Amino acid sequence: MQLKVLVTGKNRKVATDICDHLEADRGYVTTKCSPSKAALFDIMISELPKVVIICLGNETADTIQAYNVMRTALKQGSITTIVVTDDENEKLFMKYTELDRVFFLSRPVSLYALYEKLSEIEQTLDQDRENNLSSFREFVNENKDSRYKRKQILVVDDDTEQLIHIKEQLEEFYDVTCVKTGEAAFRFLVNKRPDLILLDYMMPIMDGPEVLKKIWETKGWEDIPVIFLTGVSEKDKVLKTLSELRPQGYLIKPSKKSELVAKIIDVVG
After folding, report:
1. pLDDT tens-place string over residues 132-164
2. Strands 103-106 and 4-8
3. Which of 63, 103, 201, 240 has the lowest tally of Cβ within 10 angstroms?
């Protein structure tokens, strides 16, 4: 199995060297990413890597905490996180990280140790794929105790900062999936039905009203509740759309957490 590897971090030299070696020596598909919160959030929902390598350098509490935006994605899949660091940054990382589980690799980087770990990950993924074909298969009854099941919210917005903001507001109470386009929303809906969609009114290529029309014209999706997210300047347009398409309402963004949660409770509980 060919691993998809995401390499990020403030130490750009180490990150570049690792990418070059992984591509030349192992043929891995590598993606290099800025360690900013927005860039990390975008890349995790678009690339779905199997390994994330963070190359630390001259970190602060704020730069360490930026990596926390990956924690939801890391929990949802078989993703291994490797942190390349020195002793000082390792202590800082352990103090401020919210990531559940990482592997530390000291600098200067031992390529032998790194390749050995990546081979182990490949083997585990291959075994998991084989076992899924022949081993026990777990069934979770989603209807049991459905009153207490966390509801699924799909957020559609082309603004990364807005997606991060909403996800952080709601993940205490709901399971939140974020996408940036109408097409990505449709791909999600093919496989899973959310309890509610928070839909940005103004988006490039396909705007909110177009997305809403397609959702409600598609069999099986037509009764999914939708709330528009809109800026103050678009309020009059949204009110007109409300009378024509009749979504479950709208929210002016950025919304306060209390307003957002209260509106969702009004619609789906």
Report:
1. 555 555 555 555 555 557 899 999 999 898 999
2. unpaired
3. 240
- The CATH number of 4-134 is 3.40.50.2300
User: What letter would DSSP give residue 23?
Assistant: I
- Class of the CATH domain delimited by 146-268: alpha beta
Interatomic CA distance for residues 23 and 184, integer angstroms: 29
167 contacts 155 by C-beta, under 8 angstroms? yes
Please tell me the pTM assigned to this model. 0.71
pLDDT(104) > 60: yes
Token code pair at residue 112: 């032998």
CA distance linking residue 109 with residue 107, whole number of Å: 5
How many Å apart are CA 180 and CA 163, to the nearest integer? 8
**Do 4-134 and 146-268 fold alike per CATH?**
yes
User: For the segment 18-47, what is each residue's pLDDT rounded down to a tens digit?
Assistant: 999 999 998 888 999 999 988 998 888 888
| Residue type at position 135 | S
Q: Which residues pair with 175 in a beta bridge?
A: 152
Beta carbons within 10 angstroms of residue 40's beta carbon: 24
Alpha helices in the chain (DSSP H): 12-21, 37-47, 61-66, 71-76, 87-96, 111-134, 160-170, 182-191, 208-217, 235-245, 257-268
Q: Which amino acid is at 99?
A: L
- CA 197: distance to chain centroid? 16
Of 109, 49, 107, 34, nearest to 80 by C-alpha is 49
**How far apart (Å, rounded) are the C-alpha atoms in residues 233 and 237?**
9
The contacts of residue 234 (CB under 8 Å, 6+ apart) are: 201, 202
Tokens of 197: 């969609």
Start-end of H helices in 135-234? 160-170, 182-191, 208-217
Residue ranges per domain, the chain? 4-134, 146-268
